[in-house]
Amino acid sequence: MPIFLSKEKTGFAKHIIVRDDSVDLVDHAPSEGDYWHLDDHAYLSLRRVAEARSIDLKMTPDDARVAWWSNWTNTPRIDYVLPKNTAINHIRKLISTCNHVIDDQYFSGQYQIQNRLLDLMQPAHVDDKILSMQDQNIIESFGHVVEGCCEKIVYDNYSSSTGRMSVKSGPKILTMNKDHRHIFKSEYGNAGTLLSIDYSALEPRVIMTLMGQRGIPSDIYTTIGTQLHLTQIARKTIKLMILAILYGMSRKNFIVKFMTEQDPDIAYDKIRDLLGVKSINARIKDEMQSGVIRNHYGRPLRCDNEGLFVNHFTQSTAVDVACEGFLNVITENSNIAKPIFILHDELVVDVRNEDLQKINERIRDGIFISSLSTTFHVTTKVFNARKSD
User: Fold this and answer.
1) Alpha helices in the chain (DSSP H)
2) Which pTM does this prediction carry?
3) 155 contacts 165 by C-beta, under 8 angstroms
């Protein structure tokens, strides 16, 4: 995919278009087509990928003359301020850096699904009256609210070592107490609903899919308990056991935590074998380069503890799977659903009540993930319902 470097960003005399090994200088920006660019919005933004990869993308040279002119204009014309050769050498270096920014296949490929999805998020609406009755800490957690509308959430989808997102600005939805969700409301008032679309047991389902299993039932925890002849252990405990293993709990700690259950050491081995923990761990180490592990799609992950390799691999892969599916849901329902929140493996959309049945029918059989050629089960519920409702 070509790179477009606008003269407004670089301070050069002309726009620059880079296609493979060719560089063209043009007077007018291209009117159509997909280009990597220097703008700040998410999709195909060189800045965003550079930030994610900790690459310093310098638009203008470190030069006292450029710095002096920056006092009067945001982007000085470097070909006026600097000698011709100095300006050209800077542009060559910038082009080289831009090519380096997108030379990682994950960040130039699958990662862009996340950025497309984040670009589509819309500001949420709140009930001003209910919000004003809360204490100041709660009010502040909703961010900047103007006439009943929050600012759009800006997510950080690159800093976490596991690939999970956090909130940079806007409502602190990822850490907000569920009891405060009723403060949010539909843009359509009583004629609309905030609908939560939530993957069912996403992380174990991802691992089992990567191990070649297909047609995984919706109730994965009961199925695993039956399949492994652990029927004497409650479904809730089976779930805790599976998650504990995926999150890297050691055998010793597992046995201590579930010591009241029958044969916890046997359960530990059975669950690990079914999930293919050893195989996944071997794959991670085999694909590791320079001490960096990567998820299924190739995202580099920081992890120095081998006991957490599978945990980081699973969580990060699940983020990519979730975003791919959510982007499909939003794209296919763009005329009836407004996406407002992502809560890890949960998407919240604002829907008119008259369209609820339609969207529920479309995802009733799950969300198809084309990159894994399988369907992942989801559940739906009202996002902002009170416990007493």
Assistant:
1) 7-10, 46-52, 64-69, 78-81, 84-101, 105-108, 111-120, 128-132, 136-141, 202-210, 220-227, 235-246, 251-257, 264-275, 277-287, 309-332, 356-362
2) 0.90
3) yes
Mean pLDDT for each consecutive 10-residue tract of the chain (389 residues)? Answer: 92 92 92 87 88 91 86 85 91 95 94 94 94 90 91 93 92 92 94 96 94 88 91 93 93 94 93 93 90 94 91 96 97 96 96 96 95 95 74
What gap in Å lies between CA 162 and CA 311, rounded to an integer? 8
What residue ranges do the domains of the chain occupy? 3-103
Residue whose C-alpha is closest to residue 323's, from 199, 228, 195: 199
| DSSP type of residue 285 | H
What is the H or E stretch that residue 363 is in? Answer: none
Main-chain dihedrals φ then ψ at residue 274, nearest 5 degrees: -65, -40
Could you give the CA distance from residue 11 to residue 65 in angstroms, rounded to a whole number?
Answer: 13
Question: Do the beta carbons of residue 145 and residue 127 sit within 8 Å?
Answer: no
What are the C-alpha distances in Å from 371 to residues 113, 207, 212, 234, 345?
Answer: 12, 14, 14, 34, 17
Query: For residue 275, which of 304, 301, 313, 302 has the smallest C-alpha distance?
Result: 313
pLDDT in tens, 244-280: 999 999 999 999 999 999 899 999 999 999 999 999 9
